[in-house]
Amino acid sequence: MNIEKVTFINNDGLQLTGRLELPLHQHPHNFAIFAHCFTCNKNLLAVKNISRALTANGFGVLRFDFTGLGESDGEFADTNFSGNVDDLISAANFLETNYKAPSLLVGHSLGGAASIFAASQISSVTAVATIGAPSNPKHVKHLLHNSIETIEASGEAAVNIGGRNFTIKKQFLDDIESKSLPEVAKNLRKALLVMHSPQDSVVGIKNAEDIYIAAHHPKSFVSIDGADHLLMNANDSKYVGNVIANWAQRYVTLSKTETLSTQHQVVASLDTEDGFTTQMKLGKHYITADEPINYGGNDFGPSPYELVSAGLSACTAMTIQMYVKRKGWDLQNVEVHTSYGKHHAVDCEDCDNTSAKIDTFNREIKLTGNLDAKQIERILVIADKCPVHKTLHNEIQVVTKLVE
User: How many CA atoms lie within 13 A of 307 on its CB side?
Assistant: First the structure.
């Protein structure tokens, strides 16, 4: 995983803390923001699983703690629903300034409602996905039903939610009473995906119906059948993440990937702005080559010498297995470990001279099976006869010409 700790300042001057997850093998094609559920935080397992499913599909994902929760500054008692919406807008501004403006908002429970409100104010957002979201922010009042009279009378009350105590002030109740989610959803006019479990006992499925009916097309509904409200089963959250990732790609701008073609076995293509990150087609297969970060690359793929080492390892393993199968020997598995470097030759006569170093592939072979000593000795001889090994030992030539 490629995860960065990030901080940014919200409208009240408070520092909010989050994690920015980036794809391992490419630059993000789009950025998304995740809004967690009421009194939750960015580290909920479901939040992590959904974010990682998105990064696996090329998105960069910012998940952060709302004001007064997790690692973020501020007092939860002083926050409200409008503050959550403002925090999302601050997160979007942070991404736009430092990376790229977000095109996707994903919100869980009350965070889903906040995402719809925020999306109406963030021009770069083209798609919103909600998970178990209430159709109106005031739905959270059912979590406070035993304390509402106290809050109304004295201005605040300590409330236990999910085993933790939180102070809720009257201004929180006043704020959610003033918000109309159906009205905002009706005027959103952005792609909307509503995901909800029919078995959700915290936020009933009727909420999903209300949101869906209020919104304009393009809108979609996907049932998370059998899931609980917090998606405690990892399979449920991973499913949700993959569905959102695939759905959203229809509504965000994806960079056009030029299809590589060649009459040769391999073609490599590198644009000037891509550093060392090189797109390749090997036969019918596409891969990315790169250099390590300490060499100035992005480490999105194997380096050129790692590719050469890979060819030697693969060819050695294939040659050994082909030979032992013909012999009928019991070799269940062969592993070939190869690394490249420049070292002194084994029979070096001038080892003190640094220029005497030669290209060296260190190869180690692990054999699993029922083999006797003579069979193992023969297999090691056969390893040196693999075609790529022979090519590396032969005199070779590279003929270069310009393609018109």
Answer: 15
